[in-house]
Every structure is written in C-alpha cells, then in structure tokens.
Design goal:
With 282 residues, the protein is α/β, with parallel strands linked by helices. The chain folds into 2 domains: 30-114, no CATH class; 118-248, Rossmann fold (3-Layer(aba) Sandwich). It is 46% helix and 17% strand. It is built from 12 helices and 11 strands. The chain has helices at 3-14, 20-26, 44-48, 61-73, 85-94, 131-143, 159-163, 166-169, 185-190, 213-220, 235-249, 251-281; strands at 32-34, 39-41, 54-55, 78-81, 99-101, 106-109, 118-125, 146-151, 174-179, 197-201, 227-229.
C-alpha cells in the first residue's frame, strides 16, 4: 500500500468520511498477506518506495494471475516481469487496462492517480539484439515514476552514433548502459557523463562471450569510476536502481507531483460520488 493512500485513508477517518471498522478492513493485510503458495509483502512500498514486483518465471498462469490481482487490490501500481503471453493474457482478462509489452516481457497496471514522470533516466543499448533487456529497464524505470529517454543501437562499433547523444545523456540523473558481446559500451558512457552509470551485461554474443560472462567481466573491470554493474540480462535491476537514483535527485518534485495527482484523483471521485447522490435524490 502506497504512503499517500494510507495518509488519505487516515485523513478520511479523521474527517468522519470513513469509519474505523472500514479503515481497519482496508489495512487488514498489512504488512503481508498469505496465499499458501506466496506471502505478499504489502508493506514494501512504505519501506522501499515501490510495491513488490511479480517475477513470473516458474510460476503457473493462475499463480501470476492471483498474485497480480491481490497486489492490485491493495491500490498500488503493479509490475510483472518476464511474463509469457499466456500469463499476460490471464492478467488482462481481469485487468484489461493492464499493458503487456512483448519485447520487455512486462505487464504493468498503473494506478489511476499515478503522478506524472519526473527527472530523467537515459537507457542506452549497444545493439538491437539487446532490446529485450533494455526495454525491461525502460518499463521498470517508467513504472517507478521516472521520465525515460532511450538511445538504441549506439554500440562502440560505430562510436559516432553514441557521441551524437552526449548532450542529452549529460542531462540524465542516471544512465543504464545495456550491452552484450565484449560489453565496452558501459565504460565509454561512464567516461562521457557525470551521472551514475548502471551497466547491464546481456547474453548476446558468440561462443566465447560465454552467455554474457565476457560482457560482465568487462563491465566489472571498467576503468570509468562511475560505473556499477548488475547481473547478466537483469534489465529490471538496472531500471530499478536508475529510478531510485532519479528519485533521490528530485525528491521535492516527485513528492509534490505524487500529492497533486492523488488529490486530483480524490477530488474527481468525490465529484462523481456527489453527482451520483444528487441523481438518486431526483
């Protein structure tokens, strides 16, 4: 459950708009909810700033559907990663407004009062073959509230393609560099920008790339000081960390937009409720 949702609930109790019993019912599943096959951490957004994310591999279609639904019922935005088309279809039967991205393999359900994006996270990918990982990073960062720009197919084999974007990259609060093969892109980007660079090695490459191990070792041995590295093909981690850095870079702006968006959504609901009551009087 999001902090602003709890704050609004408590304010409604204080104003007499919601009874204490109803408030208790809404809070009943804090801090966690047991489903038998899963224990959902509804308290995570209060501790970490974003709710639990659904990692879909090795879960059945029905398990993904149930977990996604229970997280959505708590009122937060929901992100599922590495979803198969079958898992995504099951979720969208219950939530048609959820968005499935087949390249990123993600399913996202945004809160209706989700605030506008803030800051700037840049996603840089060496080649088109790296797009599934880069797009996973993009969707993750956007779901966490970051404004994202993408710069794809700008690997070091044609360095002029990357250099054409240096002005925009320099404005980012964090940069995610996604590359397979030898993984040199992250070091190059790290030498061009003042922002932290999150390097994401991918498993793209020929035999001696060892499924991304070559790119991983290159990135871990980067001579660029501002480069950190996540696991092979882990676009989710790259996007998540970049979004956290972005949020820390503009905390006041992010908080103001969250509050304004939630207030606007609440006023709209109150207005619709007033119209409904007025219609019933007639």
């Amino acid at each position: 459950m999001e902090p602003d949702i709890i704050r609004s609930l408590l304010e409604s109790v204080r104003a007499g708009e919601v009874s204490t019993d109803e408030a208790l019912s809404r809070l009943r599943h804090l801090p966690f909810e047991k489903l038998g096959f899963a224990t959902l951490d509804h308290h995570r957004s209060l501790r970490c700033g974003f709710p639990e994310v659904v990692f879909c591999p090795s879960k059945s279609v029905e398990q993904v559907r149930t977990i996604f639904g229970r997280l959505a019922a708590a009122g937060a935005s929901v992100l599922a990663t590495r979803a198969t088309p079958e898992q995504a279809a099951a979720v969208r039967e219950d939530y048609p407004q959820a968005l499935y991205d087949p390249t990123a393999r993600t399913v996202v359900l945004r809160r209706p009062d989700a605030p506008p994006a803030v800051g700037h996270v840049a996603i840089v990918a060496a080649g088109t073959s790296d797009l599934p990982v880069a797009e996973e990073a993009r969707v993750t960062a956007e779901t966490l509230g970051a404004r994202v720009t993408t710069h794809y197919d700008v690997g070091v084999a044609g360095l002029h393609r990357l250099l054409a974007h240096t002005a925009e990259l320099a404005q980012a609060n964090a940069v995610v560099a996604v590359a397979g093969m030898e993984g040199a892109l992250a070091s190059v980007v790290g030498g061009l920008v003042a922002a932290p660079v999150i390097a994401v090695p991918t498993s793209v490459g020929y035999g001696a790339s060892f499924g991304g191990l070559a790119a991983l070792l290159t990135m871990l041995n980067s001579c660029a000081s501002g480069v950190s590295v996540v696991n092979i093909d882990n676009g989710f981690a790259g996007g998540y960390i970049a979004a956290m850095i972005n949020r820390q870079s503009c905390p006041g702006q992010a908080r103001q937009k969250r509050t304004a968006a939630h207030k606007e959504h609440k006023e709209h609901k109150d207005h619709e409720g007033h119209k409904g009551r007025k219609g019933r009087r007639g």
